[in-house]
Design a protein that fits this description.
By secondary structure, the chain is mainly α. It is built from 1 helix and no strands. It has one helix at residues 9-92. The longest helix has 84 residues, at 9-92. It is rod-shaped and about 135 Å long. 0% of the residues are buried.
Length: 103
């Protein structure tokens, strides 16, 4: 049976820690430069999907505004007919016709 060499745990820990002091920043910089294009493309994809949702929301808002304008146009037509009807009824009413502006 071969004889095992004695290990100096303190020296081994020192060597490992010393090498990690150099290797961790190198690995971090390498990962940053390697992952940056991937992260940028993911951010652009998310932004594009958010813009699509914003466009859909704006389209719905515009459709609702158009519907409201159509409703207001119908109310305006009804009001003009009502004014014409009131004027016609006033002309048919017997008695003195009041002068406009003095009622």
């Amino acid at each position: 049976m071969p004889q095992a060499l004695p290990l100096d745990v303190t020296a081994l820990a020192g060597v490992i820690m010393g090498s990690l002091i150099v290797l961790i920043p190198v690995a971090g910089l390498t990962a940053r430069f390697a992952m940056k294009p991937i992260v940028d493309s993911m951010a652009k994809l998310r932004q594009a999907s958010n813009q699509g949702e914003a466009v859909n929301m704006l389209e719905r808002r515009i459709a609702l505004l158009e519907q409201e304008v159509q409703n207001l146009s119908g109310i305006r037509d009804d009001l003009s007919r009502l004014v014409e009807e009131m004027e016609f009824q006033r002309q048919l009413a017997p008695g003195p016709t009041p002068k406009p502006g003095k009622e």
